[in-house]
Amino acid sequence: xxxxxxxxxxxxxxxxxxxxxxxxxxxxxxxxxxxxxxxxxxxxxxxxxxxxxxx
Amino acid sequence: xxxxxxxxxxxxxxxxxxxxxxxxxxxxxxxxxxxxxxxxxxxxxxxxxxxxxxxxxxxxxxxxxxxxxxxxxxxxxxxxxxxxxxxxxxxxxxxxxxxxxxxxxxxxxxxxxxxxxxxxxxxxxxxxxxxxxxxxxxxxxxxxxxxxxxxxxxxxxxxxxxxxxxxxxxxxxxxxxxxxxxxxxxxxxxxxxxxxxxxxxxxxxxxxxxxxxxxxxxxxxxxxxxxxxxxxxxxxxxxxxxxxxxx
Lengths: 55, 247
Fold this sequence. Notes:
The structure holds two protein chains of two kinds. By secondary structure, chain A is α+β, with helices and mostly antiparallel strands. Chain A is 31% helix and 16% strand. Chain A has helices at residues 36-47, 49-53, and strands at 15-17, 23-25, 28-30. A two-stranded antiparallel sheet of chain A has the order 1-2. In chain A, strand 1 and strand 2 (23-25) form a beta hairpin. Chain B is of the alpha/beta class. Helices cover 40% and strands 14% of the residues of chain B. Chain B has a seven-stranded parallel sheet with strand order 1-2-3-4-5-6-7. The N and C termini of chain B lie far apart (51 Å). Strand 3 (28-30) of chain A pairs parallel with strand 1 of chain B, so a sheet runs across the interface.
């Protein structure tokens, strides 16, 4: 029978420690093939993501 | 409200090649200047990449140009976008990144699309700074076990681009059935797979709803058996280019 383990939670605030000791966010927004206004809007939406969810 | 409690993206993956350092950087600067929540430059992680491996001087100039275009003052992570150009150029451009790190233009330096031989070559050169990341295409349909294991040995973090395989396999029966089982979307399942492997996924989306939902991967955990089932979907699917085997 499998034991119930707590879910390892990953959030946008989670960080990973790099081999040079810098702490980097664990999830990034990829901006490949995104330019101009579409890019700025995506970045802004990502920066505001939390507010869209919970006021 | 503490910054840690707000689910906001902090990491942005740009490139000289994408032509969006200015658009991305300006949006970040605008947000920093106008938010009342204390979000500052140091809360953001901005990555960009050298388009072409050329010379030491050109690389230093490209770094300064990226800083200027983004308006962010410094770059958090700077990568050689590919191994193209041959061993000599790779070594020369890497040395430029090392100097940019030491002169604080760049916080952390890494590589992208480096295959096993390129990684071995760089490490054998006994560099002053090891690359902190190798950004490669990794997802359940292209798992690159050998390369990933080698990078891990040196503490080099794998950044997974195209973590959703550019949407090409979202209807794969295993993906569909597992996402139903875990009550998530196929995209969330693939992002969670990436995180559980210890990778840093870089999902691309321009739609607000998807940007938000791609980050909601904290409430379920893929079992070991199901991780294995996903790993076995490997078909070396390349969704764009694959420089990992070049000279």
